[in-house]
């Protein structure tokens, strides 16, 4: 890229950030620029209205929801960080909308805005336990229906709760609670 092209791109990005701050005054916490992409941190209660803006505004046109990704940070009060990755095919640009929530709150479902959100929200719910209100099909997608817990939470035990194994005697798969042997461990007081 030429130096002039980079200056034009930086001017466009500055203008974009200024316009976003003006239009979405109360809902934006922070805007970070990473190379040519933006990470916009927002309040969780504003997710639906912000995504509607980014999808329909003529300067944004983020018509495609690529990913909903979660991250667990148990030491924080709002332990879950949720990232919505949007793509604009018109402007050939991606943006990440980021928010935080805890395990007791719910997030509004965005399946009416983006059809792809249905499966993505199911995946986040299954693996992290983050509830999406008004998702009509919020059920397990990656784990078994009888599975207990959410395996990508940091407080989920590494061994899980049940052990599955094939029994040669019974010629079938058996499930038993995990028992961890403590006999070789030395505890000093």
Rg of Cα set: 22 Å
Q: What share of the residues lie within helices?
A: 10-25%
CATH superfamily: NADH:ubiquinone oxidoreductase Nqo5 subunit
Structural class of the helix and strand makeup? alpha/beta
Strand content: 25-35%
- Would you tell me the overall average pLDDT? 84
Task: Examine the coordinates and then state which fold CATH places here, giving the name of the CATH topology.
Answer: Beta Polymerase, domain 2
The neighbouring-strand order within the major sheet is 1-2-5-4-3
pLDDT under 50 segments (min length 5)?
none
Largest sheet: 5 strands, mixed
- Determine the number of helices (DSSP H or I, runs of at least 4 residues): 3
Shape: elongated
Topology order in helix (H) and strand (E) letters: HEEHEEEEHEEE
Quickly count the domains.
Answer: 1
Q: Which CATH class?
A: Alpha Beta
Gross CATH architecture: 2-Layer Sandwich
Give the arrangement of secondary structure elements.
Elements: H1 3-23, E1 28-34, E2 37-42, H2 47-56, E3 64-72, E4 80-88, E5 93-101, E6 106-108, H3 117-128, E7 131-133, E8 162-167, E9 172-177
Which terms would index this structure?
189 residues; alpha/beta; Beta Polymerase, domain 2; five-stranded mixed sheet; elongated
Q: Could you characterize the architecture of this molecule?
A:
- This protein is an alpha/beta fold and 189 residues long.
- The chain has helices at residues 3-23, 47-56, 117-128, and strands at 28-34, 37-42, 64-72, 80-88, 93-101, 106-108, 131-133, 162-167, 172-177.
- Strands 1-2-5-4-3 form a five-stranded mixed β-sheet. Strands 6-7 form a two-stranded parallel ribbon.
- A hairpin with a 4-residue loop joins strand 8 (162-167) and strand 9.
- The longest helix has 21 residues, at 3-23.
- The N and C termini lie far apart (64 Å).
